[in-house]
Amino acid sequence: MNDTNNTRKRQRKDDGDGDSTDADKQPDKKKDLKGILTSLLLFEEQEKRDQEELDRASEEEKQLFESGHKNKTKAMVESVSSMKARDAIAHNILHHGIGGTRFV
């Protein structure tokens, strides 16, 4: 049942079937290489944009922190000044007889 005239050997891609040559495969390799290089360039460009965005966000965060620190410092100085003013008023009232009270 084994007919030798009808059996064909299956050819592998690397057997060199004669239909395609290395010259035919060269444009495909160049096309693939071009696609890879384009992808790498796009990836690099996206990475640069992401880094710029992170730098910008970091700078904004730093400015907000410094602004908050300045506001907090100003509020603390005002609070201490107010406390000293209240203490001076209380001292004057208590020790100098203002308001009908006098304490020696």
Spell out the key features of this protein.
1 helix, 71% helix, mainly alpha, 104 residues
Would you mind describing this structure in some detail?
The chain is mainly alpha-helical. The protein has one domain. 71% of the residues lie in helices and 0% in strands. The protein contains one helix and no strands.
In short:
The chain is mostly helical. The protein has one helix at 22-95.
Q: Secondary-structure map with pairings?
A:
Layout: H1 22-95
Biased composition (Basic and acidic residues): 22-32, 45-69
Region (Disordered): 1-32, 44-79
Distance between the termini: 134 Å
Quaternary form: single chain
How many strand segments? 0
User: How many helices in DSSP terms?
Assistant: 1
- What percentage of residues falls in helices of 4 or more residues? over 70%
List the uncertain runs. none
Summed over residues and divided by their number, the pLDDT gives a mean of: 80
Shape field: rod-shaped
**Main beta-sheet annotation:** none
Backbone CA Rg: 43 Å
Structural category is mainly alpha
The ordered string of helix (H) and strand (E) elements is: H
Strand content: under 5%
Overall number of structural domains: 1
Region (Disordered): 1-32, 44-79
Biased composition (Basic and acidic residues): 22-32, 45-69
